[in-house]
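Structure ticket #2291
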Amino acid sequence: MSALAHLCEEIAACRDCELAKYRTNVVPGEGAEDADLLFIGEAPGWHEDQQGRPFVGPAGQFLDELLASIDLRREEAYIANVIKCRPPQNREPLPAEIETCRKWLDRQIEIIRPRMIVTLGRYSLARYFPSESISRIHGRPRRLQGVICYPMYHPAAALHQGSLRPIIQTDMLRIPQILAQGTELPPEPVESQQLSLF
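Resolution: structure written out below.
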């Protein structure tokens, strides 16, 4: 069993917070263990909770379209969330839940060692740039400890606010070029130098 598969089994057995009482399935994440791209969303929704897989509802269908626009299949990337269990009634994750679940995402990043982390929405953005807003820095790559961090709006945002759809599509289309540039990106901003990937 691979290190990532073993970790997913550990996550599935987790009962470290109240969310374990309400879930149908844990949603650890899925994709390639050696993926260059790691997409981090917010939390599982109803569809994800039913299937135990990330991004399989309407927002996931849009994410699949976005991946296809850069000739990438979801199996070639890795897709995860900040928390691994669905909050009741799809409410926003609480700070304590995010902190309790942090260790699982930390270990996923350690195993996968992606070249680029794409944060989808404000909760995954806050993990790396807590003082920033998604509307201000989406589509602007930054290097953090040698890894490219690339903030994007969550795909679900386009479902609620149609005007964001072309913005999200444009940000996604920039990913291959940013990966190709790699180390030529500008250095990380001063405010991020005290942060760590995990």
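Closing remark: Strands lie at 30-31, 37-41, 78-81, 116-120, 142-144, 147-152.
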